[in-house]
Specification:
By secondary structure, this protein is α/β, with parallel strands linked by helices. It has two domains: 44-145 and 271-297, Response regulator (Rossmann fold); 148-267, Response regulator (Rossmann fold, 3-Layer(aba) Sandwich). The chain contains eleven helices and twelve strands. The protein has a six-stranded parallel beta sheet, sandwiched between helices. A six-stranded mixed beta sheet has the order 7-6-8-9-10-12, sandwiched between helices. α5 (113-119) links the parallel β3 (102-107) and β4 (127-131). α6 packs parallel to α7 (181-189) and α6 (148-159) packs across α11. The protein is elongated, with a radius of gyration of 25 Å. It starts with a helix and ends with a helix.
Length: 323
């Protein structure tokens, strides 16, 4: 009799445990499927505006990747408006986005800030966000990046591979005073290095970028940090001919020239879109003003060093960075 009672208690505990386990699994499944299971009418509409084209290795392609990221992770429907290279096209895109009930409009680049500063007061129910730039109104936010630490590390790495003690940086837009990480990393590693800074004033003007590169090579520069997206492919191609080293940008660009690319400063721009949506769906919502993202937010990191570095050099670079 006592044994039968114990058996019932054991069965009861087993059944109770099964139901608790089943409930936990169901709750987790609901969380995982929350985004996918949301009805279209329940999802928030987000518009992403870019002045660039949506092709591989372009700045605009990162806008599209951002769209895919946030649609996979959040209950949103995102639409990309590309090739917005005039005031009228931007105004038309904003109007179209508002008509499609977009509550957040993201400008993929600082060039949208002047327009958003003017349009924000006319669309008070919409929150305007730009990647870089400025914000003047309460329904505006700028998400920008602090790449100092990662670029500092890249500067130290570059110092180990220059034979001429001449290193250059080809920037898409003027930002030398704002972004001093690479230059400071060079100087910290070796104060005798001569630093050359050149600006293309475009993200994809390959012709001018290569002209600037040839000027630097003629002056003895043998390592170049190139911060374009479209023009980096041409820079690395010429580097193969010239026999100089390059530090890539945006993604790990070693696949373009394993023997030429020392490392790359990886800028995970789509990660900033995740940060925007995390803030948007938080209790406090999107803040006003400027939000600065850095390597701790996953937007920057250094790619693995190329085969030209010895293990001893890699250790020395790490020691130099720590110091």
């Amino acid at each position: 009799m006592e044994q039968a009672k114990q058996s019932k208690i054991i069965i009861f505990i087993a059944v109770l445990f099964f139901f608790i386990l089943f409930a936990v699994i169901m709750l987790k499944a609901q969380g995982i499927l929350h985004n996918q299971g949301a009805e279209p009418d329940e999802k928030k509409h987000v518009a992403i505006l870019t002045s660039d084209v949506i092709v591989d290795q372009s700045w605009g392609s990162l806008a599209y990747k951002g769209k895919v990221e946030i649609e996979n992770e959040f209950p949103v429907i995102a639409k990309v408006y590309s090739q917005l290279d005039s005031k009228q096209k931007i105004q038309n895109a904003v109007q179209a986005a508002v008509e499609e009930k977009a509550e957040v409009i993201i400008g993929h680049g600082r060039e949208f800030s002047p327009f958003f500063n003017k349009l924000a007061t006319s669309y008070s129910d919409v929150h305007f966000v730009t990647i870089h730039g400025t914000a003047e109104h309460s329904n505006q936010t700028v998400y920008t990046f602090d790449q100092y630490q990662t670029e500092y590390e890249a500067g130290v790495a570059a110092s180990f591979k220059t034979s001429s003690n001449k290193v250059g940086l080809i920037d898409a837009f003027e930002a030398r005073e704002k972004n001093k990480g690479f230059e400071n990393g060079l100087m910290a590693a070796d104060q005798n290095i001569e630093f050359f800074y050149r600006v293309v004033n475009s993200r994809d003007d390959s012709k001018k970028a290569v002209e600037l590169m040839n000027e630097l090579v003629d002056q003895g520069v043998d390592v170049i940090y190139t911060k374009g997206n479209s023009y980096n492919r041409d820079i690395i191609s010429v580097a193969k001919e010239k026999g100089i080293y390059v530090i890539g940008y945006l993604d790990d660009q070693s696949y373009m020239g394993e023997s030429q690319v020392l490392t790359s400063v990886i800028n995970d721009v789509p990660q900033s879109y995740r940060s925007i949506m995390e803030d948007y769906f938080s209790e406090s919502g999107l803040p006003s003003g400027t939000v600065v993202l850095d390597e701790n937010d996953g937007v920057y990191r250094l790619a693995p060093f190329g085969p030209m570095y010895t293990e001893k050099e890699k250790s020395a670079i790490e020691d130099s960075i720590e110091e």
